[in-house]
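Onboarding guide, step 5: your first structure request.
Type a short instruction followed by the sequence, for example:

Predict the 3D structure of this protein.
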Amino acid sequence: MEDYKLGTVESRFADIIWSREPLPSRELVALCQKELNWKKPTTYTVLRKLCERGIFQNANGIVTAVISREDFYSAQSERYVEESFDGSLPAFLAAFTKRKSLSAEEISQIRHLIDAIGEE
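The system replies with C-alpha cells like these:
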C-alpha cells in the first residue's frame, strides 16, 4: 500500500469498515446508505478504489481490512513527519508544542513512551 492518504469522506467510509469488519458487502451498502447517504454504486466504487490501494479487500462478498486502523494512521503520521519535517520527530514535537502546550499527563505519557523504547 503506497497511498496512505484518505479524504474526509473516505476516512468516514474506512471507519465504518474498521469498526465492523468482517462485513458483508451488502451490509456495507446499507450502512453507507444510512450513514453517508450513498447509493450502492458509490459504495462499491469507493470500496474498489480502497481495495486497489491495498487498504481493504472484498473476497466472496466479505469486506475486511488488509491494514488495521492503527497501522494505517501510524503510517500516515510517519509519512507526514517525513514529508514535513525531514523525518525529524523532535522537529515535529517542537513545532507542535510551539502552538499547543502539553498537559502534565501528556508529558508523562510521552516520557513513558520514550523510556519504554529505551528499554527495548
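Each response can be followed by summary notes, for example: The beta strands are 23-24, 56-59, 62-65.
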